[in-house]
Design a protein that fits this description.
Helix content: 25-40%
Number of helices: 6
Strand content: 15-25%
CATH class: Alpha Beta
Radius of gyration: 15 Å
Structural class: alpha/beta
Shape: globular
CATH superfamily: HUPs
Order of helices and strands: HEHEHHEHEEH
CATH architecture: 3-Layer(aba) Sandwich
Number of strands: 5
Length: 155
């Protein structure tokens, strides 16, 4: 599938989710800012995708990233981040959302698996009540966009 066709609206995501459900396919959801893609992201996305038949990725909008990470972020615009993520084999669909959390997106999609990095605890995963189960994915040690940004700023 062409990369840009994998960047979809919520309406299209809901239609895809319905189709997957009818076919007995397992939908996985994960989300994040993915401001500067690194090896930790790739490992996490590949692990999430391995947990089902289709991976929906919720991507924070630019305004959402600014509210969560500060005025100097994001480094890359949402559309650019979405294109890079959609180009990955592990990602089946990218849905950009503007809220600070993906709660409403998860509520709408009701994934079979909600996959999050180990920087979250089971009880603290937003939207967990709308997923079949929550899967916590181990992080790749030393890989973080925030840490990378701090190193770059120090020069």
């Amino acid at each position: 599938m062409l990369t840009k066709k994998k960047i979809i609206s919520l309406k299209r995501a809901l239609a895809l989710r319905s189709s997957l459900r009818r076919k007995g396919k397992k939908a996985v959801f994960t989300n994040g800012c993915f401001d500067v893609l690194h090896a930790g992201h790739i490992a996490s996305l590949e692990k999430a995708r391995s947990m089902g038949d289709f991976l929906f990725l919720g991507l924070n909008s630019d305004a959402s990233v600014r509210r969560l990470k500060g005025p100097s972020r994001p480094f890359n615009k949402a559309r650019d981040r979405a294109i890079v993520l959609a180009a990955l084999q592990a990602v089946d669909a990218v849905v950009i959302f503007s809220a600070d959390t993906p709660r409403e997106l998860i509520k709408a999609l009701r994934p079979d698996v909600l996959a999050k990095g180990a920087d979250y605890r089971h009880g603290a995963v937003v939207g967990a009540e709308f997923a079949g189960r929550v899967a916590i994915i181990p992080l790749l040690k030393g890989r973080s966009t925030t840490a990378l940004a701090a190193r770059l700023c120090r020069g």
